[in-house]
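[job 0412] stage=complex_fold ligand=nicotinamide-adenine-dinucleotide status=START
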Amino acid sequence: MKISVVGTGYVGLVSGVCLAAKGHDVTCIDVDQAKVDMINRGHPPIYEEGLEDLLKNLVGKNLRADTNLQKAVLDTDLSLIAVGTPFKGDEIDLQYIQQVSRDIGAAIKNKDAYHVVVVKSTVVPGTTDRVVLPLLEESSGKKAGIDFGVGMNPEFLREGVAVNDFMEPDRIVLGGIDQPTLAVMDQLYTVFDGVDILHTNPRTAEMIKYTANSLLATMISFSNEIGNLSAKVGDIDVTEVMKGVHLDKRLSPIREDGERITPSFTTYIEAGCGFGGSCFPKDVKALIAHGKKFGQAMSLLDSVIEVNEDQPNRMIELLNKHFPDLNGVTVAVLGLAFKPGTDDIRESPAIPIISRLLEAGATVQAFDPIAEKEMKHLYSEEQVCYCQEIDHAIRGAQAVLLVTRWPEFAALPNMLDKDVLLVDGRRMLPKDSIARYEGIGL
Ligand code: NAD
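[job 0412] stage=complex_fold status=DONE, emitting structure tokens
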């Protein structure tokens, strides 16, 4: 099948490359000429494990990038919209979705063949049929459901393991305005064998994505609240509390042979220094705002955000127990990405943590295996000393803050001097492996 993917960020590029790897003919479209050039040279503008190898194999064959959306729509059967949907001010910002809808509509105006437009970006329920569809009709002068199809296909990939998630999805959700749209969307995914496919309408598809993200974000904030109380009460370790909770066989079922299965869902029921990334914070906020627009109070999700925004402060509080005055104290911040496996720092807890450290007059030495370049856009090299190795970052540091669960940080117990304080924001290290240890929820 010939498809165009509009937007070559984390979702667009991974989708485009993986769909090409599955045999489709893919044209990736972006307004950013530099990204387009990089892709055509076989260099992905973002880091995702396995992405570069796939791209190098496919580019110039059944995969290419371009800035010409009009031509791509004319040449393909289906367009996936994968542009950003940030949260701005007090609601979701749909400007990129609107622009692309108008542009695709203008191309459909000059196209005789039936074309299907599918929103892959995360958009609040009602966007595909109330915003995208009317814009397509307006700029094409044609009728949805007759001249073209409109659908919604949310993406569930996780950054860091995006290629694997896309190639082996747990479910595919297809929301279409009618059967002909769904039939074309089905063709896109026939190359994925044995995966559960849910057919529904666009609004339900949109709601599924928000519900899935909100549930996971809620689990995290819930765990953090329990962790914060555990620490206040004293003599309770939240990691033991959560272990006891995970052992519920409804959360970790016991197989017939007696072995226990530990689903990755349980990793969201653990305390830490808060969630970040380009999705959870903005999606939960967008759903809250959407609820309010409909007169539906979203008090539970309000609290999820409130707990999360306060959680990086726990790291500073634990540091302050040992260093009430941080002025002149050298602190190593280990991990800048919002989670391991990615160079994405959007909404990373490392950002408010560094900001508080700098406000308090601390000297910050930072290390991240791949996200340093991104953080330099926020904090200059005059503000933060960026280090190439873990041992450079901890050299001379009086305290070390572990912010991202990068596997290489498991070596810290053998690297730290006895008098150095470690604050474990991910409860990653055994608490008795380091002489001066503090952790969230301990
Ligand atoms: P991103 O910011 O990484 O990429 C967006 C891309 O769209 C950019 O390359 C930008 O240049 C391009 N773009 C903007 N306007 C354009 C236009 N008019 N024409 C062509 N290209 C244009 O975004 P992302 O992280 O890939 O997210 C995209 C969407 O997918 C969002 O709605 C997000 O919520 C959703 N999503 C993201 C993830 C994730 O893990 N990042 C997972 C699931 C869903």
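Residues 6-12, 29-32, 35, 82-85, 96, 99-100, 121-122, 155, 157, 159, 278-279 surround nicotinamide-adenine-dinucleotide (CB under 6 Å).
[job 0412] exit 0
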